[in-house]
Amino acid sequence: MRPNHTLARLRNGRLAVGTWLQLHSVHAARLLVAQGCFDWMLVDFEHTPVDHTTAAHIFSAIADFSGGRTTPLARVATGSVDQIKQALDAGCQGIIAPMINTAEEAAAVVRWSRFPPEGDRGAGGLAPHLSFGVSRPAYLAEANRETLVGIQIETAEGVENIKSILDVPGIDLIFVGPNDLHLSLGLPAMFWSGHDRFRSAVATVTDACAQAGMPTGILCRDATGVKDRASDGFTFIGMGSDAHFMLTFAGEQYGELHGIEEPPETWCNAIIPPTDRDSARDAG
């Protein structure tokens, strides 16, 4: 069975850098995976509209084109049996479940992600074994070992319960959701900040994970953020997204073309009214 490349790196304490897929374009995913830049690529079911058929094509494109070098993952909409079951049966090699606040919720995620006797995942998926390049019987026998199960901590309650969550067997990764964690703490959403409440919450999670030998992950906007978080000890790090790459490069080129000396903090959030676009083109 083709090993889970990302899971192997995490288990060996090595850095695994990937990216979020928000555009849900099979063609864009193939182009990105062909560059060989990422250890993993994650389809986001939580915050972007994607159907399972499209996701299945993306997962297979990633697994087949990279020959296992890039791991197709899913951030499910919620840690429920239907969301986890359909994502795994669509062909991803691991899931991250968002908004996990208690050990009971974490245990349910593990239960739906593992075949018996470690869990209660049902057999019968038409094609998930193809992502690992094996027969269906071989997949059923070995999938528990090679399927990444990530728990996302992004609320004050989840931070408070991190030690009991870490006691749940079968978790491979604790992923800090920085934007929602900021919001949960009464702060503006952002990837990282120096706010004491945020830094203290992150330290609570990472310190507990370090004591338990659990890999930690986080999402960053760019390569500078990835380097900073890697130096902090995170080993599963997301760098931007397909939408971010497209909007950032387009915005930067637009700004250079029209001499915009004060660009927005991020082109991903920029909305330029048509009248302003006309003014910029006329000035240029």
Short description:
InterPro entries: Aldolase/citrate-lyase_domain, HpcH-HpaI_aldolase, Pyrv/PenolPyrv_kinase-like_dom, Pyrv_kinase-like_dom_sf. The protein is an alpha/beta fold and 284 residues long.
Distance between the termini: 57 Å
Strand percentage lies at 5-15%
Helical proportion?
Answer: 40-55%
Helix/strand order, N-terminal first:
HEHEHEHEHHEHHEHHEHEHH
* Secondary structure category: alpha/beta
CATH superfamily: Phosphoenolpyruvate-binding domains
Protein topology:
Elements: H1 5-11, E1 16-21, H2 26-35, E2 40-44, H3 52-66, E3 71-75, H4 81-89, E4 94-97, H5 103-113, H6 136-146, E5 148-153, H7 156-160, H8 162-166, E6 173-176, H9 178-184, H10 196-212, E7 216-220, H11 223-231, E8 236-241, H12 242-257, H13 274-283
Parallel strand pairs: 1-2, 1-8, 2-3, 3-4, 4-5, 5-6, 6-7, 7-8
Task: Kindly list the characteristics that best describe this protein.
8-stranded parallel beta barrel, globular, 284 residues, alpha/beta, TIM Barrel
Explain what the structure shows.
Helix content is 46%, strand content 14%. It is α/β, with parallel strands linked by helices and 284 residues long. It has a single domain, classed as Phosphoenolpyruvate-binding domains (TIM Barrel), CATH 3.20.20. Strand 1 (16-21), helix 2 (26-35) and strand 2 (40-44) form a beta-alpha-beta unit. The longest helix has 17 residues, at 196-212. It is globular.
